[in-house]
Write a structure and sequence with these properties.
725 residues; Rossmann fold; Hnrnp arginine n-methyltransferase1; 7-stranded antiparallel β-sheet; 15 helices
């Protein structure tokens, strides 16, 4: 499943496009939509005159860009990474590869299926098969095939750094002459240029949590047509079954629907009456659903709703939708809020692997997927609903209908109605959940009301304009800065839909060069507000807090002498913890299924120096320290550099601390009456996780901490380690 990213951390953007690909977006478009945690790969043209021949040399070279906070006026700036190879190593170390390799159930199931498939082929044809491994990763499945008798294995891997690892790992294990690693997509393979003949057998694990998202159907179709023998090729896995159940969970429902949401008594989160009832889009959320925060209640048993036979030659196209209808009996009274999907793959000879919780050992690379419904529905035991399962080449989704009486053919809508509120176009599930958090909204509303008057000049320097809309309840002059053009348009429509155009001006801009005459009222700013929230940084809570501080500093000259700032104070907080499983998903693996992975492990050291954005409410842990402050964010002042070293007591020495969780809390008025946090118990925010080397605590153990904010550079560094006092 490796694609250079995991589901919570940074992706490699631009790797999928060739330099001459007409479909490739331009750099400006990529930068406009990229998130701070992503790494961008782009081609930059060059030209020079050869000194000897005088000839003009032209071409292009690959450039790797990473983001930093812009210390001049906030926002992101993209800088070229001097060591691209090191950047790719970090991408590998932060991916889910370790989680996959440590999944003993997965490895054993694939080994059994490969061994059985090769044995059956050999018995039938009296020769060993030629095997094609698509998406080889470290080469594990290819080595299993070679171990169990394949004549030759062709292993393709599109991510060049990963392909280099696979070449090293397979060679280190003595398979250099049996396994050929091809650093290409399978769809770019050609016969006889890359493979002398068609393969007899295909092995792959092109699955994501949604089953089809990594393109297994079109990949298999291409392989059958161009890379596999035409007569009965062996395909592992052979089929997949999708299971689904109906659940009640207000938290899941509010990750999609904002229908009926108000920011105040007079302000609706809607641009018109139709938007007020928006049903959202086709949302699929990979989540560990069995936790107290989502608190799903099963309203039905799990039922099999779809079977995909990977051995069957069936044309597939992205525009073709297939549906299947299943009757589902309600077993418990409640509010039907979501469908939860899992899958099971059949690897042959009766061996399966399943993402149903509890069937396999815990892992984090394939998890259940929740589909919040467009509208809640009350159900009772005895009710029977029609669950329609739809899929195309890359997606699975669901519709729930009441049974028709008298029975007749159910009309299935293959297309989901488009979002009419606009918010689903710009907000992810966590942001929608945040907008639905009434207590959070009330805290901002009350804190802003405490410092504004009808004549206050208010400036909102966060994305999302929520504080601006809230401020309009108590002020008649509000300006909101939006960094994304689409967001500025949507919130301008929200302003108009709430008859607030006379009070609020939405500007699509940054804060650099902002002048009084640009504001709704050309006067000093009396109240500066922000959540803080920024689309490009929504997975990085600490960056959002720092970005607000940089923006606040950039507009300092616009502020009146006694301007109020909401939030007034922020604190980067942390807590040492012992995760039950999450820490096992990263780091070195040594040996996997008996194969030496030293070449893979050589790239893993960097993960201990990186932050991982995780929704930690989904990952069980035991606190090892009390929460403590790492960095004060004094928004009442301009941003300044800060350095500190200190120690924290380890309050629970019965556990082995393996990580530190970091988040930000905001004291909106500085009096601790209204505090908004992005901490571990919050469903609507991710936290930063910094993993630690495993070191058992003793009676003298302490947590050594260090932090350095270099304000002039836009960089923040911190370090944690268990030491003996």
């Amino acid at each position: 499943m490796y694609n250079g990213a995991d589901k919570y951390s940074g992706a490699v953007v631009g790797e999928d496009f060739k330099a001459d690909d007409a479909a490739a977006p331009n750099l400006e478009d990529i930068l406009d939509t990229a998130s701070a945690e992503e790494t961008i790969v782009t081609s930059m043209p060059y030209s020079y005159v050869d000194e000897d021949s005088g000839e003009l040399i032209e071409g292009s070279s690959s450039v790797v860009l990473a983001s930093r906070l812009n210390p001049e006026a906030g926002g992101l700036m993209w800088v070229e990474e001097e060591d691209a190879a090191e950047t790719y190593k970090n991408v590998v170390s932060m991916s889910q590869m370790t989680s996959m390799l440590r999944d003993a159930d997965r490895n054993a199931a694939y080994e059994h299926g490969i061994r059985h498939g090769i044995a059956a082929f050999t018995a039938k044809h009296q020769r060993a098969p030629i095997v094609l491994d698509i998406g080889t990763g470290t080469g594990l499945l290819a080595m299993l095939a070679a171990k169990h008798g394949a004549a030759h294995v062709y292993a393709c891997e599109m991510f060049e750094t990963m392909a280099e690892i696979a070449s090293s790992v397979t060679a280190d294990n003595g398979f250099e002459s049996i396994i050929t690693v091809l650093p290409k997509r399978s769809t770019d393979l050609r016969i006889p240029e890359d493979m002398p003949v068609r393969a007899d057998m295909l092995v792959s694990e092109l699955f994501d949590s949604l089953l089809l998202g990594e393109g297994i159907l079109p990949t298999l179709q291409h392989a059958r047509e161009h890379l596999l023998v035409r007569d009965d090729p062996v395909i592992i896995p052979r089929l997949a079954t999708v299971h689904a159940k109906l659940v009640q969970s207000e938290a899941l429902f509010r990750m999609n629907s904002v229908a009926g949401t108000r920011l105040s008594e007079t302000v609706r989160l809607a641009r018109n009456d139709v938007a007020w009832t928006c049903t959202g889009g086709r949302v699929a959320l990979p989540l560990h659903t069995t936790n107290d925060h989502l608190a799903p209640i099963d309203l039905s048993d799990s039922v099999d709703v779809l079977t995909l036979d990977f051995t069957r030659h069936a044309p597939v196209a992205a525009s073709i939708t297939t549906d299947a209808l299943t009757s589902v009996a309600i077993t418990r009274e409640g509010s039907l809020d979501a469908v939860v999907m899992c899958w099971t793959v059949d690897l042959g000879d009766g061996v399966t692997y399943s993402t149903v919780p509890g069937v396999q050992k815990w892992q984090d690379h394939w998890v259940p997927v929740a589909f919040p419904l467009a509208a809640q529905r009350r159900v009772s035991p005895g009710d029977v609903l029609s669950l329609v399962t739809l899929h195309d080449s890359l997606r699975v989704w669901f519709q729930v209908h009441a049974p028709l009486s008298p029975p007749k053919k159910l009309k299935v809508d293959h297309d989901v109605p488009p979002c009419v509120c606009g918010l689903h176009l710009i907000c992810n599930a966590e942001r929608l959940s945040m907008l639905n958090n009434r207590a959070r909204t009330a805290a901002y509303r009350e804190a802003i009301a405490a410092v504004t008057t009808p004549t206050s000049n208010v400036l909102d320097i966060s994305d999302g304009s929520i504080c601006a809309l809230v401020s309009a309840s108590t002020s008649s002059s509000v300006t909101s800065i939006e960094s994304k053009e689409v967001s500025s348009r949507i919130f301008q429509q929200l302003v108009g839909g709430n008859d607030l155009s006379d009070a609020i001006t939405i500007l699509h801009s940054g804060v650099k060069g902002l002048l009084h005459e640009h504001l709704h009222t050309a006067a000093p700013v009396d109240v500066l507000v922000g959540e803080p929230f920024y689309y490009a940084m929504q997975n990085l809570p600490i960056w959002q807090g720092l970005n607000f501080w940089y923006r606040r500093s950039a507009v300092h000259d616009l502020l009146s002498q006694n301007a109020a700032i909401v939030p007034r104070v922020g604190r980067v907080m942390a807590m040492g913890v012992a995760f039950e499983h999450l820490h096992e998903c990263f780091g070195q693996v040594a040996s996997v299924s008996g194969f030496d992975h030293t070449a893979f492990d050589a790239l893993q050291g960097g993960y201990l120096r990186r932050d991982f954005p995780f929704p930690t409410y989904m990952y069980p842990y035991t606190p090892a320290t009390a929460p403590f402050e790492v960095l004060p964010l004094r928004f009442s002042e301009r941003i300044e550099s800060y350095t500190n070293r200190w120690t924290e007591p380890i309050t629970n020495k019965d556990v082995v601390m393996n990580a530190v969780i970091l988040w930000v809390e905001y004291d909106l008025n500085g009096d601790k009456e209204h505090v908004v946090a992005t901490g571990p118990s919050q469903v609507e925010a991710k936290q930063a996780v910094r993993f630690l080397p495993l070191m058992p605590s003793t009676d003298k153990s302490i947590l050594a901490c260090a932090v350095h904010l270099e304000a002039s550079e836009g960089t923040l560094e911190y370090a944690f380690g268990v030491e003996n006092a």
